[in-house]
Amino acid sequence: MLKTLSLLLILAGLVLGPGYWIYVVHFTGRVAQTVELRAGADGVWTSPSFRLEPSMAPVGLILRAAGSFAPNMPDDQPPRDRYRAVLHHGEAASTPIRIELGVKSIADSNPRFQERLLLLQRPQAGDYRLALIPESPAQIRLSNVQLDVRAQVQQTDNRIVAAGIGAIALGALLLLM
Hints:
By secondary structure, this protein is α+β, with helices and mostly antiparallel strands. It has helices spanning 2-27, 158-176; strands at 30-36, 38-39, 45-46, 50-52, 59-68, 80-89, 92-93, 97-102, 112-120, 126-134, 141-151. Helix 1 packs antiparallel against helix 2 (158-176). It is flat. The relative contact order is 0.32. The mean pLDDT is 94.
């Protein structure tokens, strides 16, 4: 009986904690537009201008890309590339957002990436563009780099995530008894 209860607590915790967080971060809201980024000669990926309005708030920006690399490297050194994402509103540039695109194993030589860049609570009306700047020469060749602009994105309720983590911990504790 105690084992069943602990397994149910762990399962409920996984749904409430990580499951809820992944759903809110990547799937809430609606895709207002998808913008293709183009690579420049200097390796910087830039988007064309896209328009944001205050009525779209909150707005989430999600970077999606496909990659490839030759898997002829040591198994314990899978490739990782670091980038800075800079959002421009007119001539003003935001603080760079550091992201890392990497794989866990060299067997995954055609990875797909999806990174939530930021959530704009109250975007100002105007034209925006995104620049993805590599911090060093890239080991993973990117292709199909896109920016999903999601409108009316929900925010994570940290109390629900904390309750999920608590349920996982309590279930694990009961399982050990």
